[in-house]
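thread: overnight batch results

M.L. [08:02]
morning all. the overnight job finished for the chain we discussed friday. pasting input first so we're all looking at the same thing
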Amino acid sequence: MNMKWIKNRKTLTAIMAVLVVSCTQERSPVTGWAYNDPTNGGFEKVPYEEQETGPGLVLIEGGAFTMGRTEQDVTYEWNNIPRKVTVSSFYMDETEVSNFSYLEYLYWTGRVFGPTFPDIYYKALPDTLVWREKLAYNEPYVEYYLRHPAYRDYPVVGVNWLQANDFCAWRTDRVNEFILVREGLLEHTPSPSDQDYFSTEAYLSGKWQGQLKQKLPSFDEQNPERDVRMEDGIFLPKYRLPTEAEWEYAAYGLIGNTIGERITDRRIYPWNGHGVRNATDKYIGQINANFVRGAGDYMGTAGFLNDNADVTAPVYSYWPNDYGLYNMAGNVTEWVMDVYRPSTGQDADEFRPFRGNVFTTQQRDSTTLIGGLGGEILTNVDGPVYQKFNHKVNPPTGHGVSGETTEVTDSVLTIMSKDPNGNNNATAEGKSDIPGRVQWRQVSSTVATDNLDERRNYKAADYINYLDGDVNSSVYFEEGEDAYTDKSDKMMYEYAKTSLINDKSRVIKGGSWRDRAYFLNPGTRRYLDQRQANAWLGFRCAMTRVGSPVGLGK
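M.L. [08:03]
and the structure it wrote out:
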């Protein structure tokens, strides 16, 4: 039995009754007390099989592989030195996120937040002006590419890294909401508002303002019904962007070249061979991906277009790799989670390598702490909301906010509202907060409950610069007796002075419709400021795999 297949209350009650009879004999191996026994306090062991595969996802069985350069380094950046690492199993979208999927997100955002918080909708809009070039006529793409049905199955572009993360958060909540509705636990709400829309984090923290259709029966005699908990295995983990290592591993699809524990052939591209044309008898000679074949040749000649696309192509174009993933080379370059540093391949851990950790914890009300523990989890009332465009902002009122201020930074206007404790709800720039969602803060050595002084695995929140950009790794130049007194202008990455690298530089992976064949190699690395977007840059989502890395029965 799996909790995800529970359809109605009668079925649920019957299952729980069976569990009372059948599971009372199952006892704790450490205490001897029976599980699911109301007379023992009602500690539950729910039936569970394995993680459900979320919509649009493909299971990527993890393993070890050589991450980094498999082709000559034509850019001479030396930023992808080969190194063997291990990636855990995870899920990844079968295709890039399409225009139509993103329009679904915009439609929902406009319906829920548009009447009260229009800036949330404007913040989510892709930048369609990325198509414009000084000496090219691309206005039709500006006007039609995002919304015309002819392009609805094409990858969305003009989305920056922050917007891609917001899409992932929205998708997580909508999928988990659908699961609760499917299982008969939540009443379907056709027209949710900014006050009662479903948020997974808010629900699990007890701060969600909506109403369940029914609750789960409980073995606790004092509380005969309860909400769904993480321990039930009903909710899926968060949708997110893949890490660089995950994306590169999935792109190669080396599972197709594996016999036993041996990878028989390495790959330059997501397919076998040294060329970019299909080598199978049925499709021999056809182009495997959407890219620029040569100078000025974006699509081939009339009568036989080499990739059948002038700009992007539909997300299900060409042939999938051995994991079943489409367009892991060409079409659009894709955002990943990592902050860019040249030496990440040498510095990062061998297991699940990643750069970009900023450790956070849920914000709690300090006035309700009990014995140094607990504290009510706080959710955002109405802010901050990021204003991307130059139009007038009317801060919302009537939501119990004690005061609002506005702040202009990098031409981005942020509405900052006060929480019930009188503190600003705003977080660090680049982290989006939406009304109704749980507030998060960085862990801090000044907060006693964070216990950083007692930890050995980390001592601070932000490890973006660790070993590559922090004080210990920076190069200082002797300039007299005061050379080491002021280190602020002697750092390794002097953004806009000697480098374009900073903590907002995110890795982008893969080739695009505007790239030559070199960038089709999954090991290549580039970066872009997380607040910027391009006409050749899109994204796809990933999800953590929990439990067995291979699935049930293996």
